[in-house]
């Protein structure tokens, strides 16, 4: 069995050891990005074992992506920056489950929250929840904090980082370390100053500083604690999915991506 988070292990196995898949019974994936990768493999006809999409089970999606991020975003930001959020202008890139949790927490503290979103339904949800939906370039010069939650790559580019104001905070709650173009900041013209664990000041030649958290990696995993209840819910859901795929009679699951059966998601919480 493969138990994956982000699709990285599955992708690595396909690339390095494709013959091993002859012995593998199935894949269990828990992240938005990893599930997206599995659907891409399935559509291309390259998925050679059954895969279980744990991310979209109700227990995982709500407790881990929505409720946990609603708590850990503030925990991570407070631990690293000690910043006061009342009146601060914050842009949250992406209004999926993670983005919804982040926006709810920041709004509750009195921050002025903007949302960027390319999906029209998610953009409508953000609007109906009382957030102003904008393009990042429209607000890049005025916001105090940028939080990425898209599962995509290069959401915040070097050009946008160049235009951010002095003292701005940039962090990632989305996928891995791909959302912020950190590689473009590692040049001789910019100076990196480590001010505390997981906190770097990136200094431009004119003296402007941008505060980068966890070097662009996931803020909630690098800078905050995750409630034990959330961890237990996620781990239990994954374990049940592994057991289901392993014990399933031959022919029940074909070479495709499956949602966790609803009854199994209910059993996770019970």
TrEMBL record:
One of its GO terms (biological process) is one-carbon metabolic process. Residues 65-226 form the S-adenosyl-L-homocysteine hydrolase NAD binding domain. One of its GO terms (cellular component) is cytosol. InterPro entries: Adenosylhomocyst_ase-like_sf (IPR042172), Adenosylhomocysteinase-like (IPR000043), Ado_hCys_hydrolase_NAD-bd (IPR015878), NAD(P)-bd_dom_sf (IPR036291), S-Ado-L-homoCys_hydrolase_CS (IPR020082). Pfam families: AdoHcyase, AdoHcyase_NAD. Keywords: NAD, One-carbon metabolism. This is S-adenosyl-L-homocysteine hydrolase NAD binding domain-containing protein.
